[in-house]
Amino acid sequence: QVQLVESGGGLVQPGGSLRLSCAASGSAFIIHYMGWYRQAPGKERELVALIRGDLSINYAGTVKGRFTISRDSANNALYLQMNSLKPEDTAVYYCNFNINVYGDVWGKGTLVTVSS
C-alpha cells in the first residue's frame, strides 16, 4: 500500500510564496509520473503541474512562470514552489503519483489560502 502526504499549505498574502511537499510511504515501486492538482470551492479539480519519468514538465497556463514543480527521485518526494501567489490560487492542493501496480494514488490535500 502506498500513501501520499502533502504539507506546506497555509495562509499567505497576495504576492507571497509557499512551498508544498508531498512524500510517499510504502514499499518499493516505480513512479511513472507525478503531479499537483488543485480544487477551489465550487470548481472542479484541475491540473497545476505534472512531471513525467523523462523529467518533461507541463504547467497550467494560469501558473506558468510563477510555480515550479520538482521531484526528489531518491526519496519519492514531490515539491511545488509557488511564487507571486494570487487570491485565485486559493484551493486545496493535492499531489498525485501514477505508480506501477497501484495506478493513480492521491494525497488528502493541503489548503492554500491567499488573502490579505
Give the distance, in angstroms, between the N- and C-terminal Cα atoms: 40 Å
Strand elements, count: 11
Characterize the main sheet.
Answer: 7 strands, mixed
Q: Name the poorly predicted regions.
A: none
**CA-based shape:** globular
**Average residue-wise pLDDT:** 94
Please trace the helix and strand order, writing H or E for each element: EEEEEEEEEEE
Strand content: over 45%
Number of H/I helices:
0
Quick summary:
0% of the residues lie in helices and 56% in strands. It has 116 residues and is mainly beta.
Task: Give descriptors for this structure.
116 residues; mainly beta; seven-stranded mixed beta sheet; 56% strand
Explained architecture:
There is one protein chain. The mean pLDDT is 94. The chain is an all-beta fold and 116 residues long. A hairpin with a 6-residue loop joins β4 (31-39) and β5. It contains no helices and eleven strands. Strands 2, 4, 5, 6, 9, 10 and 11 form a seven-stranded mixed sheet that branches. The chain has a four-stranded antiparallel sheet with strand order 1-3-8-7, with no helix packed on it.
List the helices and strands and how they pair.
Elements: E1 3-7, E2 10-12, E3 18-25, E4 31-39, E5 46-52, E6 57-59, E7 67-72, E8 77-82, E9 91-99, E10 103-106, E11 110-114
Parallel strand pairs: 2-11
Antiparallel strand pairs: 1-3, 3-8, 4-5, 4-9, 5-6, 7-8, 9-10, 9-11
